[in-house]
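Amino Acid Chain and Its Fold in Token Form
===========================================
Structure side: the spatial fold of the chain, written down as a series of whole-number tokens.
Position: the record begins directly beneath this header, with no further notes in between.
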Amino acid sequence: MKQLYLFVLILASMIGASKNGYADTYPEVVFDNSLVKGVYAKSKVNYEGHSWVENLNHHLLVSDTLFFTPGNSLSLQYKSAVDGDWQVDLQYSRQKLNYQIDRSDYLVFKLFIKSVNTKANNLPKISIRQKHSETNQLELGSYIKNLDYNKWIDVRIPIGDFKNLHIKESITTLRFAQNGPDDVIHYLFIDQVEFLSKGASQVKLSSPAILSSAVAYDKQVHLQWQLPLTPSIRYIKIYRSEDSKDFRAVGIRPTSMQGCLDYVDDLGKTYYYKIAWVDYNYEESPFSAVKEVKTKKLNETELLDLVQGAHVNYFAENYDINSGMYLPFRMKERAVVSVKESGNAILSLIVGVEKERINRSLAVGRISRIVYFLAKAQNHLGIFPAYFDGRTGLPEHRNNEATYDVLATSSIIEALLVARQYFSEDNETETDMRKRITALWENIKWNQLVAEGYSDVLVEKISVADSSQRYPTLGGINESINAYLLAMSAPKYAIPLSAYENGIKNIDLTYSSDYNKMDSLARDTISTLMRSFRFAIDPLGNRSEHIANRVSVFQDTIMYGEHLLFGFSGSTLLDLYKPFFTIHPKLLSDGNIDYEDAIRNYIKVRKRRDNEIGVGSTNSDIWGFYQRMDSVGSYRINPAIAPSSMFMLNEEGKKAVLALYDNYGENFFTEYGFRAWLDLRNNDVSDEYFATNQAAIAVCIENARSGLIWNLYREIPEIKALLTKLFGEDK
């Protein structure tokens, strides 16, 4: 087992030094590989008249046999007719929509012309699309000095040649469009489409790459390298062989990563690996020494360790070096960090330390950095905004609203209190961290965070710019529970104990959701929040100034043979899971609610419903749809919903983990755990990760196995005293 723990321990040991990358590529890369075989789901094909473009379900096909960088390239086969037109859009990943280019940059990609009858004027035109505009179309042939066939050609277009390009606005799409018409089929391959700066380092890579280890875990081989501080290294290129002679390129990784997982086909088989550094011109360094590894089947416990460890590793690597906070996106000019998801990161890091996947001192250093940052960062009544610029400590307000977020603050304060409980050693560093956490906790003026007309009902956020602004009240069986327990147990400025009945057990009626209006950054990190968070709307469409209209959460109903105490809204189960990352349901020994029984019923109903839908999978252990459309729409699996159910339905959750890994591990599972979603109908997977998902799997699996986070939360002195007051017994 110690070998297995090494899987993430080595990666996590880079916490203090690694760069802030987090996925498979760079934010400036439009296309390097399709994550699934067959088609590229982020392409969109349109044609009309007598023109035509080869497609599958309106997506470009990909080639996994001919490519410039492994493991595939885009296949563009088209006919440009006189009485027709076509266009192909390469859509920017939603995760990268904050990337902005400079006028001195270049659009660079590799082109392979397979059809020898294709002349320069037959090549497509190209333009850049932004949210509300499109540039002029440039003729691709004008940027190719020597037109050649059956070889990869370097295409380099100065960004300055594109007119009507708004530099401060993000890119949404790169468009290829019909150019010179004829009646001939043309066939191209396109790979490694990216925006590169003019000043990229051109230092030659003369030293061999260093592959430090290769260790097999089931069909995953974990590779670890030692990356020098050489500015001209662009990628790490991975080669694999089955005989130590014939090596094939199988992947590339950005320099932000210190290791990766490589999925192989067979168990009990010996594989050989070597790597090379790759520069900005895609010239390679000398190879590393070869590492040999033999795959072997892992038992159920070891596979759970593997899956849990990868999800912990997501938070070990994805953070801002300045603040220590969770970094949802890499941006050129700012380091926007999420307060809410930094709470999830802290809980996951604690799990990593306990499982010996993360060094204790490094985790303490990271959390201490967060505490120092928050102590100096702007707050109002002790409450933080949802986002900060990690470099300056200034709020990063969304939608032009200068607000401070009670839920986001509750998330990180609760996690810090759990950390205060866990890191209890009597040394200067941990003692100091505990004192600083207590100071942040005591600084929150909960009694001033209540709704108008109430003393025991919290608002979701507060505005410093407009004191008359009314925001939603918190309530319901969701993250509101965590906020109310903190507010009632606060050492200073606590709200009355009546908040348990009046706050938690009631929700707003007369509010319409505002979270749906948030941009992609907020949607990713706040992620499908409960529908009870609403803005009051009067019949004329103006925000109401009246006291919130609140009703009971109890809406008894029966579905799929189970009693649902709070009705059925159709929202994600993660809303229901989230409060119980930290709170064991048994702690809330309410005479009117058996929380354990209620949660189990909701999980059973969701599984039964998803199994009954059954679109895209015949395996009853694969469930957790989060996007449902009509009979011709898409059904996406959220990989956190079923596996995280382990905390209440151990066997069902465990089977879901193993089924997702066994059936979709090749493309769906990485060194950061499961990707954000799996589209069963369209054979597509996300190229990003959701922080809430990664934390749910890391934390819920651990609570199911050892109760670690539950036990720590229960022993927080202030929480312990509160539970005694509420329920009349020592919890």
In short: The first strand starts at residue 29 and ends at 31. The first helix runs from residue 2 to 12. The two ends are 34 Å apart (CA to CA).
